[in-house]
Amino acid sequence: MEQQTVRIFVGFDSKEVVAYHVLAQSIIEKSSIPVEFSPIVLSNLGGLFTRERNALQSTEFSFSRFLTPYLSGYEGWSIFMDCDMLMRTDIAELWALRDDRYAAMCVKHDYQPKIETKFLGQTQTKYEKKNWSSFILFNNDKCRALTPDFVNTATGLQLHQFKWLENDDLIGELPVTWNYLVNEYDYREDAKNVHFTDGGPYFDEYKNDDYAEEWFAARERMLFVQQRA
């Protein structure tokens, strides 16, 4: 049976709460199909996620993102997204790219970060497959290796480099426009989903970055309420 609702898991970080809500707004207002959101909040996981914070992780959801297939009951497809993103098109376009040959699908970035530190002074770590895991289409039944126990005990590189799959042939490739890295890549009008990977426009030092005006406009729409005349 065709899955009717797009399940979207979004990494939630207490240092950038507004990011989650603006991303959800940008998806809702453009989507032509039903969507449901699950913020991945550490305090909501009720003991499922027990690993201690690593000094190198820049967000609270660096590793908990890999619980997405488990939280989906290993059924159907789910999307994981970092919160510091802005959807610029109908997410139905992404949903149409699902391919059952793969266990996971993502943009296969191949780049060296231009900066040494990210938002709030976090170290910009460099490793193979960097940013592949920031936007993943999970074919949940084929991701059963991602048990809570494995997510809690595997190394960061085992998780972020998709070592939980038998081989890289199980990773499908999405067009770069679905996880378009602001500042790392030059401005593209046709970017479908932009990723403020260095830091979102809600941080003062990034408020003039590419696509920032669109983010602030989406924030205003997210705050909208119609008052009684």
TrEMBL record:
The record's keywords, sorted A to Z, are: Transferase
According to the UniProt entry, the coiled-coil residues are: none
Which InterPro entries does this UniProt record tie to the protein? Nucleotide-diphossugar_trans (IPR029044)
The Gene Ontology terms for molecular function here are: transferase activity
State if Transferase is listed as a keyword: yes
| Top-rank lineage group of the source organism | Bacteria
Q: What is this protein called?
A: Glycosyltransferase
Organism of this sequence: Rhizobium pisi
